[in-house]
Design a protein that fits this description.
45% of the residues lie in helices and 11% in strands. It is mainly α. Helix 1 packs parallel to helix 2. The chain is globular.
Length: 94
Amino acid sequence: NYDILSSVIQQLDPDSHREWSSVDQQLLKFAEAVSSYRIVGHHSILVVDEASDLSGSQLELVGRMTRIPGLSLILAINEEGLVDLPRSLLELAD
């Protein structure tokens, strides 16, 4: 989970330092970065390729991340992997 969030935060805010003691702190930093882009009229898009390789906890984290206003999710997954997706992510699908 730290790797996913750290990578995304680093892309949104390259000047941020990488010292967080919890996933919740990272989520807060991520939400702040998305909000700062939203304030200036930008929309953030999170692209997750090969989502079938993510663990259950990582998929849950992605679901938590999508609840942040100003963020859209593109989740690339094969048909077999759809069975393992949490219902909360499936309900967000268009």
